[in-house]
């Protein structure tokens, strides 16, 4: 079998897994983000295999079929938001504030 990391490596089937593991560690090429799970970073030679075998593939495809469009990633807490929707420069750089709960409001009233 041919190693996906180095085409010059021909390996027998019995030792293929251990060989690929050692070549993966030595690999210095680009990592590609998985379409089905953003926490998966795959070495370029394994992208086609991972895309077929990813454990999150079925869930992603089910959501995509239900929504009739690609899922939109959620906004992270550290991202900046446009506070009033006006799209002006001042709001676009303001950090997102955490939501105020009823207990927070009660505490604020009692402290004044």
TrEMBL record:
A Pfam family recorded for this sequence: zf-U11-48K
Positions of the CHHC U11-48K-type domain: 1-27
Ranges for region Disordered: 84-112
Highest taxon above the source species: Eukaryota
Compositionally skewed regions (Low complexity) per UniProt: 92-102
Transmembrane intervals: none
The protein's name in its UniProt record: CHHC U11-48K-type domain-containing protein
Species this protein is from: Plectus sambesii
